[in-house]
Specification:
This protein is α/β, with parallel strands linked by helices. The protein has twelve helices and 15 strands. It has two domains: about 260 residues, Dihydropteroate synthase-like (TIM Barrel); about 100 residues, Sulfite Reductase Hemoprotein, domain 1 (2-Layer Sandwich). Strands 3-4-5-6-7-8-9-10 form an eight-stranded parallel β-barrel, surrounded by six helices.
């Protein structure tokens, strides 16, 4: 076994699990069913719970979702985290039914835009304290605080994320709310490593939730995640993890199995001595299927994109396939070509430029045409 000196982060309890303070690294996952489909969601939670998930996250985007969550809570003993979207006020009706509240600082600007973010965080923190909930400050590369992004060059996506996380930590501390952890996620493993190292250097006391967002389909998604985790956990950074894979619901247990295996390998010394994800080749990133996905055909589409683009594997081009309107538009901006999926159409982008919306059965030829143009211009 490798003797890894963990960062001395403070303990944060999430239901029956405590992260930080040298506790075992917890492994998490997220439901991919519609939250309003109580039976399907409970079934998926049970699948992931049986697979060993320490915490399971559920997205809530409406009062109907919140009502369903109350019923889901009655039917499972799992530690539940709720993923608040733009409507931070939903925290009031979901906090009684969960063990952790996750909010994204960038999403606080989408609802009640006239109110300062501090007022919204104060509201969430008060509810968390009243209902025995932890908080995760979930900073994501595709939805960063706009004021932070404007301060830095467009090529610097890391510093805005870092500043946002540190600012929210400082504010929560000022409220005497310290039962929180932080995540800083990107689809590029090297950026995940850099931003988490920088955060840990600034706030070694705050537990970190590690993950590579939109890691994609196995095995590539597992490899990307492994690269980041080896370099962070191997240096004592990280208290809980999620492996975000694009897989059908019946295979969501693979996320937990992959997380456990990676952690075990790191502690056993089974790691890559030289980390190289072949960055000069085609890179397909796709988000994990979750309850925000509005058409389950998204998972199949991601697999079709991977198969169709095999001929371009020697070209340094990034294609992003995103499953929802919440994160899709922003998180495809940095890709050479991006797809974000709606209920009936798939939106095609070239960088930040929108190229149109096409039915699911028409999108692959459109994507191939744009891919061929990119290959021809290089």
């Amino acid at each position: 076994m490798v003797d890894i000196q963990r960062n001395k982060t403070r303990p944060v309890r999430i239901g029956t699990v405590t992260i930080g303070d040298s506790n075992p690294i917890a492994v998490q996952s997220m439901t991919a069913t519609k939250t309003t489909d109580v039976d399907a969601t409970v079934q998926l939670i049970q699948l992931m719970h049986d697979a060993g998930a320490d915490v399971i996250r559920i997205a809530v985007d409406s009062r109907k979702d919140a009502a369903a969550l109350a019923e889901i809570r009655k039917q499972t003993p799992a530690n539940l985290s709720v993923d608040l979207q733009e409507n931070y006020r939903l925290a009031e009706i979901v906090a009684p039914h969960v063990d952790k509240i996750r909010y994204n600082p960038g999403h606080l600007y989408h609802h009640e835009t006239e109110k300062p973010w501090q007022e919204k965080v104060r509201f969430i923190a008060a509810l968390a304290a009243d209902h025995d909930c932890a908080i995760r400050v979930g900073v994501n590369c595709g939805s960063v605080d706009p004021a932070k992004k404007e301060k830095y060059d467009a090529d610097d996506s890391i510093t805005p994320m870092l500043e946002s996380a540190l600012e929210h930590c400082q504010f929560l501390d000022s409220l005497d709310f310290t039962r929180y952890c932080v995540s800083l996620k990107d689809s590029d493993p090297s950026k995940v490593v850099e931003v988490n190292r920088r955060f840990a250097a600034n706030r070694p006391d705050v537990p970190l939730h590690l993950g590579v967002t939109e890691a994609g389909m196995p095995p590539d998604g597992v490899i990307k995640t492994r690269i980041a985790f080896e370099q962070l956990i191997g240096k004592g950074i990280g208290d809980t993890v999620r492996v975000s894979l694009t897989v059908p619901n019946a295979r969501k247990g693979e996320e937990i199995a992959a997380g456990r295996e990676i952690i075990s390998d790191i502690y056993a010394g089974r790691v890559r001595s030289v980390v190289d994800f072949n960055t000069n080749s085609l890179n397909i990133i796709s988000c994990p299927s979750c309850s925000r996905v509005e058409n389950e055909a998204f998972v199949e589409l991601a697999e079709q994109v991977k198969a169709m683009t095999e001929y371009a594997k020697e070209h340094a081009i990034t294609i992003a396939v995103m499953g929802c309107r919440v994160n899709g538009p922003g998180e495809t901006d940095d890709a050479d070509l991006g797809l974000w999926c709606g209920p009936k159409v798939v939106n095609l982008k070239k960088g930040t430029e929108a190229l149109g919306a096409f039915p699911y059965d028409e999108i692959l030829p459109k994507l191939k045409s744009e891919l061929d143009k990119l290959i021809g211009s290089t």
